[in-house]
Design brief:
Blueprint: H1 4-12, H2 16-20, E1 35-37, E2 44-49, E3 65-70, E4 76-77, E5 88-93, E6 112-120, E7 127-128, E8 132-134, E9 141-146, E10 154-162, E11 171-178, E12 189-194, H3 210-215, E13 221-224, H4 241-252, H5 255-261, E14 265-268, E15 285-286, E16 289-290, H6 291-302, E17 310-313, E18 318-322, H7 346-358, E19 363-368, H8 390-400, E20 406-410, E21 416-420, E22 427-431, E23 451-455, E24 460-469, E25 472-481, E26 486-495
Parallel strand pairs: 1-14, 12-13, 13-14, 18-19, 19-20, 20-22
Antiparallel strand pairs: 1-2, 2-9, 3-4, 3-5, 6-7, 6-8, 6-10, 10-11, 12-24, 15-16, 17-18, 21-22, 21-23, 24-25, 25-26
Helix pairs in contact: 4-6
Length: 498
């Protein structure tokens, strides 16, 4: 890392800009790429962002210094990881008076315009959206809706970014995705799920190894089950909207993430670290950020729909549920009180019960940001495997246990496991953290009776493959190491419906 003394020397000789970022070149750029989100058989949203420079600032450039001062006493408040700081004044600075746009790893937004050109792969005629203006106040982000897509069809994409109408040479990024098939359109399906990625825990120079490993599987879609960034970890604790956006920009400017997302359909789920702080709920505040601010920033950065919990069917053999675990959570201070605290909320549980009962899919996969089965550590109390949510957890597991072809997939835990609830036979797959440096929380030498598989101290991800046949369909479930190696697999079979 560059020392503050070296930085001051560089600033004095006029090298500050070169140290912080690469040459500008064209008028505007797309250093954070684009994301294909919220895909259905006939629609998709394309998340775009305009940046000042073509790639992220050098990681060796200085980081923001974040300071907090008690609102009543004015005294300095030490910043620690995994905590919220509700009653503080925040001061953010960089050496030499540089602004946040020059911070190490950052990819600052710019004013400009974006549009999307798209076509079914192999066809000649491009369709296009209208140009949309973006500005720095909204972090250079625009969400373009594509409509009238052909179900179950690969599409080519080109996202263009320009400064304004007079800019005759827009910056272009290409990619693609596949629209989901209709519920009666039988196709093989491949998908991946990952969680828990911290910027400081990269395992290769260009980001995270799991992204090219997942891309090699050519998934039809991908789910990030939460903790896409860690506001409350590392040397830069995010206590302001600008710092929160800095976390998103530097993470998604990493080449492995940027290249993956412009070629794979993504669904994003939020958890705690990517809203505000560890174990946060609706009553949480930290620095200048309220819980509502955190939710709005997450939507801005991922295209999350207004109702975070949702379900989608991918052909006749697979239906997926994405559960929301934060918005209706009972505040931490009352978890031990009566009535029994809630995690998912009554409306969401009723919706889950109704949609499961109505499902015609061969296999049901429910993805949650925190465990439903576990087991988990006794020191935690933020999920259905913990005592604080035991009453509602039992109710939810009994609901899920009615469906023999249902699989639970969970994020948040920093180790991989496959477990079975002894009371209901609900099976749960923990996808594991994004890298070995982020692993921890359980010892492999202490398995529980519920465990069918346990792997600790390493990172990885989950994948599923649905294969239809004349006799029915199969669902292969797999846990992978970060390099893509399969470390555990099971297969579920279902006969054809008559």
């Amino acid at each position: 890392m560059m020392t503050s003394w070296n930085f001051r020397v560089a600033a004095r000789v006029g090298l500050l800009w070169l140290l912080a970022s690469p040459p500008i070149g064209a008028a505007v750029h797309q250093a954070t790429g684009f994301k294909v989100v919220n895909v259905t058989p006939t629609t998709a949203d394309i998340w775009t962002r305009v940046t000042q420079r073509p790639v992220a600032n050098s990681a060796q450039a200085p980081l923001p210094q974040v300071e907090a001062f008690d609102l009543k006493t004015g005294k300095s408040v030490p910043l620690r990881e995994n905590r919220a700081f509700p009653d503080v004044r925040v001061v953010v600075s960089l050496p030499g008076g540089a602004d946040l746009g020059m911070a190490g790893g950052g990819a600052p937004a710019a004013m400009g315009q974006t549009r999307v050109r798209y076509r079914p792969k192999g066809t000649a005629t491009w369709l296009q959206t209208a140009w949309r203006r973006v500005d720095e106040a909204h972090d250079g982000v625009a969400l373009h809706g594509l409509t009238a897509l052909v179900p179950g069809t690969p599409y080519e994409l080109v996202v263009e970014a320009r400064q304004d109408q007079a800019d005759s040479l827009p910056h272009e990024l290409s990619g693609g995705f596949k629209s989901s098939p209709r519920p009666d359109q039988r196709q093989p399906v491949s998908f991946c799920v990952m969680t828990c990625q911290q910027y400081e825990h990269q395992d290769r120079p260009d980001g995270l190894a799991i992204y090219p490993a997942m891309a090699a599987l050519r998934p039809d879609f991908f789910v990030n089950s939460g903790d896409a960034v860690y506001y409350d970890h590392g040397p830069v604790i995010a206590l302001t909207p600008a710092l929160a956006r800095y976390h998103w920009a530097r993470m998604y400017a990493l080449p492995t993430l940027r290249d993956f997302h412009r070629n794979v359909t993504s669904f994003f789920m939020k958890d705690d670290h990517d809203i505000l702080s560890n174990d946060c709920g609706p009553a949480t505040r930290t620095g200048e950020l309220t819980y509502a601010d955190g939710v709005n920033l997450f939507r801005e950065q991922t295209g999350l729909p207004p109702v975070a919990y949702r379900t989608f069917q991918w052909g006749p053999d697979l239906q997926v549920w994405l559960m929301e675990g934060r918005d209706d959570r009972t505040p931490d201070w009352s978890e031990k009180r009566t009535p029994a605290p809630t995690l998912w909320g009554e409306a969401q549980i009723k919706w889950l019960s109704t949609t499961l009962a109505a499902s015609t899919a061969t296999f049901q996969v429910i993805i949650a940001s925190v465990p439903v089965v576990g087991p988990d550590r006794s020191t935690k109390d933020d999920n259905y495997a913990n005592i604080g949510f035991a009453v509602e957890g039992k109710r939810v597991r009994e609901l899920l246990g009615r469906y023999p072809h249902l699989t639970m997939v969970t994020g948040d835990r920093h180790w991989q496991y496959v477990s079975v609830d002894p009371a209901t036979s609900v099976n749960e797959w923990s996808v594991g953290p994004s890298s070995e440096a982020h692993a921890g929380g359980w010892e492999e030498k202490t398995p529980r009776p519920e465990h069918r598989f346990l792997r600790t101290g390493e990172g990885g991800f989950f994948s599923g493959v649905v294969t239809p046949s004349a006799a029915g369909a199969s669902l292969e479930l797999r846990l992978h190491a970060v390099d893509g190696r399969v470390v555990y697999r099971e297969q579920k079979l279902a006969a054809a419906k008559r």
